[in-house]
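Q: My labmate handed me this sequence with no annotations at all. I'd like to see what the chain might look like in three dimensions before we decide whether it's worth expressing. Could you predict it?
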Amino acid sequence: MPDIRFQRILLKIGGEALAGPSGFGIDPERAESVAKTIKNVYDLGVQIGVVIGAGNLWRGQEGVQHGMERSTADHMGMIATIMNALALQDSLERQGLGTRVQTAIEMRSVAEPYIRLRAIRHLEKGRVVIMGGGTGNPYFTTDTAGALRAMEVGAEVLIKATKVDAVFDDDPETNPNAKKLDRLSYIEALNMQLRFMDSTAISLCMENSLPIVVLNLWKRDTVRDLLLGEHVGTEISNL
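A: Here is what I predict for the chain of 239 residues:
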């Protein structure tokens, strides 16, 4: 077995990772692709927690812009993350992985309530734990939920899996001269306002010295390469 850089990870995935070409809904083929990526990492013997967003099903900000009360919009988003968690669970189980979905908003007929020690025990038993429902509170993003859960279960790194290779000093889709940033300190990430993750999540990681790695989920073996010690994406840490 090769040397593994991190033994327990928290993988933060946007809901768009499960979406089809339109960017909305749940595409079974995309869910299967994400499941295969996770299995590729699981086969290294790594313990994996997953927090997933809901941008493919609902964006609360759009509701707020149309006059919806913020708490209502955010609770709808939290419920949508549970739908994504169940879809990912199904795909992972079909890859032969043992899983548990835990939710911050109780839905006992479909998932366990989130309990920190129970989540840790599942990880120790080799199950992939998918944590839905965000933090269970409005006004907090799933990025913050990912940072919070990573701290609670003792993950050694928070991996923000995106559709771009790394963090850039500008939007690479609109600026072809945008510079890739290999490493950043937490303070630099906050001061530069790069928007790859919300400031609450970054601050929480900074206060607890939890490294963040931003990488491209769709680039072959990126997560696996990171765990095997290669430099991948952008690392945000104390430097």
